[in-house]
Design goal:
The protein is of the alpha/beta class. It is built from 15 helices and 22 strands. The strands form seven sheets. A five-stranded parallel beta sheet has the order 3-2-1-7-22, with helices on one face. The protein has a five-stranded parallel beta sheet with strand order 9-20-10-11-16, with helices on one face. The longest helix has 17 residues, at 413-429. It is globular.
Length: 534
């Protein structure tokens, strides 16, 4: 008897982990990948958003699936080429390669009876055919349709206009040019910083100020105490931090604000900060926006990056006219303005059910627990919202295939529709939040709970305090939800050790740059050569 087949669109992290769980659940995955390589965003030489020399801004412990840890000697922050190799090794280990059809584009998906009908185009000879599948997973990712704002007189500008997806390190076209970088999220700050010394000048224009944090953070739990140094994701993604209690005392709130402020000594000081980079953390009427770059603040404080809080109103032949009245001469503009979710291969009837709307770019689709829709049987979307990272897509895949193989049942349709309606109300009222689906820890635990993978924290707290500390007071990663795997506790112990390691710095160490701080790390922090050098 032949196995039931599941079509998986995309061979990035979500597609690969979906194929792995399909095989584990005795289904036959067919992965359609329109490029010649796996890895999605991290594939190489595919004109994608990752440039040569770029490093991840989350650590290898967040950037892993539970049963495929990085090699022990891997750097804590991985270069793009290593991330691609990680995916290749994952596909090889779990025998996924024979299930991937490269250079094959899914042109149209329809629901025909109980089957999913796909029109598939072989991009090598442009031939097409129709295939049917019992199950469908969309895993085509978030970074395939660059979003470029429509600005008046763009056609009259004589210089270079590109999206960040086309940026390349040390691009000769940008050498000694006056470059404007639009946007201050992680791609904007990283690209602006990388242009210093290569471009003639770097101007960063943004409508909202982001607090810019380096990959490694140095902090004290209380004044005068020993320092701790952590990768930013290990610092932030702890349940002990995220699950803040509403009954905090005023003193506890002050301590939390002091620790948080200490991570941004330049931007939270009205005396030190450039006015367009200053953030008053005592204000309660603002959303705190975060981006990650090791050298952006250093360059901005030295005048090597010119920050301007505004928007481009229109272009002239050799300049940009801003909404604040300033005119900035420029030879090139790089738009670090994000991406729209591209689901154009889905039939209009399906898109209507999903309430697909790219104008609501933070909520382009509405799903139950970001994964299912009650009107679309045997269908799931994996990795199609921000903030999931590797843990989230693995939890989604594990849950999806339990449902597909009837090991689990979804709630009744009315319950699912109620959540979808609540999501839709949020979409109407909020289209600008950086993390509209909530903090990473809340988002991940929500999906884990739906898939019956969430640890019983109260029970563990009474029976095994150390295990509770590993789960609650250390950074969340995929191993938290697959503790039966023999390596999970070992990896969790490494993260816990990292979280609790203390450092005794000298009296001048407040002036340390991130590179010198990194030199004081233990062997657990094997850093890539040159990552923190100027």
């Amino acid at each position: 008897m032949s196995k039931k087949r599941v079509a998986i669109i995309g061979a990035g992290r979500a597609g690969l982990v979906s194929a792995k769980y399909a095989l584990e659940n005795s289904l036959e995955p067919v992965v359609f990948e329109k490029t010649s390589q796996l890895g999605g965003l991290w594939s190489r030489n595919n004109d994608m958003a990752i440039w040569e020399g770029m490093y991840s801004d989350i650590s290898k412990y967040t950037m892993m699936f539970h049963d495929h840890p990085w090699p022990e000697d891997s750097p804590i922050f991985c270069p793009s080429r290593s991330v691609h190799e990680y995916f290749k090794s994952y596909a090889t280990r779990f025998q996924l390669m024979d299930h991937i059809r490269f250079e094959t584009r899914v042109e149209l998906v329809k629901k025909v009876g109980e089957k999913w009908q796909l029109k598939i185009v072989d991009m090598k000879d442009n031939s097409s055919k129709i295939e049917e599948f019992e199950f469908l997973i969309t895993a085509s990712g978030l970074h395939s349709k660059p979003r470029i704002p429509d600005i008046e007189n763009s056609v009259d500008f004589k210089g270079i206009l590109i999206h960040s997806s086309k940026f390349r390190l040390n691009d000769p076209l940008l050498k000694d040019k006056k470059v404007i970088v639009v946007g201050c999220s992680s791609s904007g700050t990283e690209i602006a910083a990388s242009l210093v010394g290569h471009a003639k000048s770097v101007t960063n224009i943004f409508p909202r100020t982001y607090l810019v944090i380096p990959r490694l953070v140095k902090f004290q739990l209380s004044p005068g105490s020993d320092f701790r140094v952590l990768p930013v994701d290990i610092f932030v993604n702890r349940r002990a931090i995220s699950h803040e209690h509403t009954n905090q005392t005023d003193e506890e709130k002050k301590q939390g604000l002091r620790i948080f402020s200490s991570l941004f000594p330049y931007q939270t000081s009205v005396e030190k900060s450039h006015p367009d980079l200053y953030v008053d953390l005592t204000r309660t009427d603002q959303e705190i926006l975060i981006s990650c770059s090791d050298y952006y603040i250093q360059h901005a404080s030295q005048g090597k990056i010119k920050p301007i809080k505004s928007k481009i109103k229109k272009f002239e032949s050799n300049s940009a006219v801003l909404e604040n009245g300033m005119i900035e001469e420029c030879d090139a503009v790089i738009f670090c303005t994000g991406y729209d979710l591209d689901l154009d291969y889905l039939d209009d009837d399906i898109l209507k059910i999903l309430k697909y709307d790219t104008k609501k770019y933070k909520f382009p689709i509405i799903l139950y627990k970001y994964t299912f829709h009650p009107e679309l049987n045997n269908f799931a979307m994996i990795g199609q919202i921000d903030g999931l990272f590797y843990t989230g897509v693995e939890l989604q895949a594990s849950w999806v295939f339990k449902v597909f193989t009837q090991q689990m049942r979804l709630p009744n349709k009315d319950e699912m529709k109620e959540e979808i309606e609540n999501q839709n109300k949020r979409r109407i009222n909020d289209n600008k939040s950086q993390f509209p689906n909530g903090k990473h820890t809340f988002l991940i635990d929500k999906i884990a709970e739906a898939g019956k993978a969430l640890p019983d924290f109260e029970k563990i707290k009474t029976s095994d305090q150390h295990l509770f500390d590993l789960l609650w007071n250390s950074a969340i990663n995929s191993n938290h939800f697959f503790m039966n795997d023999p390596n999970s506790i070992k990896i969790m112990e490494k993260i816990y050790e990292m979280t609790n390691k203390i450092y005794s710095f000298g009296k001048n160490d407040e002036l340390l740059d991130i590179g010198k701080t990194a030199e004081k790390f233990s062997l657990n922090y094997h850093l890539p050569e040159g990552l923190f050098t100027k």
